[in-house]
Amino acid sequence: MSDSELTVENETAADPVVVDDDGTSVPGNVRALPGWAQSMIRDLRRENANRRAELKRVRDEAARIDAERESDRMAITQAAEERGRLIPRAERADQLEGYVSESVAKRVAALPDALRSLVPAYDDPLKTLAWLETNAPILSAPRVPSLDAGARGNSNGARISVGEREMAAKLGVTPEQYASAKKR
């Protein structure tokens, strides 16, 4: 490099060059500035514009996220309210399912041994109950008629005479107790 170039470089780097006012030094008139200053201003404006665009994008993204969060909060609140309404119903459904299961088990246990194997093993007790209801006429044992000529009526009470009833009353026992003692 020559001495004249070093001098020019040192002048531009260290001391600002004073430009004679040719009537164009109006505030905001960038064209009156040297090229390196104009280039720096353009770069700064570009950088500023990029930062403003990035800031706007970040603010828009933050607003969108806030809106999503509010929407999520509303959905969570609604889900919590619905859960509060459904828990008692679920507990009641569990109770009813337990009752139906017990009822079905008792009905199957009451069947004669030969007929229990006919009951299908459904995974749902309601299906088993429906099957039992549908097939109840087939599964119920027929009533055998009583062939005892002396038996009348369907009373299972103690069969004692009027005199024996009076005697039981005098002794302070029930007719059933008197009849069972009489059989011994």
Set down the secondary structure blueprint:
Layout: H1 3-14, H2 35-110, H3 113-116, H4 125-134, H5 136-139, H6 162-171, H7 175-183
Question: What do these coordinates show?
Answer:
It is a single chain. With 184 residues, the chain is an all-alpha fold. 68% of the residues lie in helices and 0% in strands. It is built from seven helices and no strands. It has helices at residues 3-14, 35-110, 113-116, 125-134, 136-139, 162-171, 175-183. It is rod-shaped. The N and C termini lie far apart (144 Å). The model is unreliable at 1-19 (pLDDT under 50).
What can be said about the biggest beta sheet? none
Helix/sheet category: mainly alpha
Q: Tell me the total number of β-strands.
A: 0
What value does the average pLDDT take?
80
Count every helix, treating DSSP H or I runs of 4 or more residues as helices.
7
Using the CA coordinates, give the radius of gyration: 52 Å
Q: What percent of residues are in strands? A: under 5%
Order of helices and strands: HHHHHHH
The poorly predicted ranges are: 1-19
